[in-house]
Amino acid sequence: MNSTIENFPSVEILLSDSNRKQCIERLKNIKLPQRELNETNKTRAAVLIPLCLVKEELSLLYTLRKADLKRHSGQVSFPGGMEDSTDSSLEYTALRETEEELSIPKEEIKLWGSGSIYVGKEFSVLPVVGYLGDIDVKKLKPNPNEVDVVFSIPLKHFCDPINCRSTQFRYQNQTYVLPVYINAQYRVWGITALITHILLVSLLPKHYKHKLHLIKPVLSKVSV
């Protein structure tokens, strides 16, 4: 058995007040790769990183978005969406969107805190951490207009290197490396994988060992 999984901390330790505070402090200190703020991406959004107990294992809850949506159709994501003018804060945006997508009342979500805003290509997003308590995924009632599937992945899954990969791409002369998580019900990639990564780094610094390394291209001189 992988040693990081064998010595995995208990649910009580992970959910303790001291660990929660340390997690949010680390999360706030992580600086995400940023694009320049412009007219396209200045729109603000928030996502909830939903921690929950599933069959007595601390897990993360994900959604598979409907294939006919205008934005991010058919993608694995955390519940969330664009800020409304009536929202009191981006944290409220994350809670409101979670209730709209998964029918989980805002009042039943224990808000832990939030990280730093990530400025992406289309919008700026704030990751917000919340605890949902004990969840039976099969009994959830997702919004059929937005969500195709709801599924969970235990935190232990991410701490096994066999389930962790990375992908590298270029955008506007910048090279980015993002994590990819495999061997679960669905592959987790893109901004959702990046937000998953920073949560795991913050919550499980001694057990989550996946590193994102930039691989430089091999250049060879060829005579023609």
TrEMBL record:
One example GO MF annotation: coenzyme A diphosphatase activity
Top-rank taxon: Eukaryota
Keyword vocabulary terms for this entry: Hydrolase, Magnesium, Manganese, Metal-binding
Matching Pfam families: NUDIX
Co-factor(s): Mg(2+); Mn(2+)
Domain Nudix hydrolase per the UniProt entry, residue ranges: 42-177
Name recorded for this polypeptide: Nudix hydrolase domain-containing protein
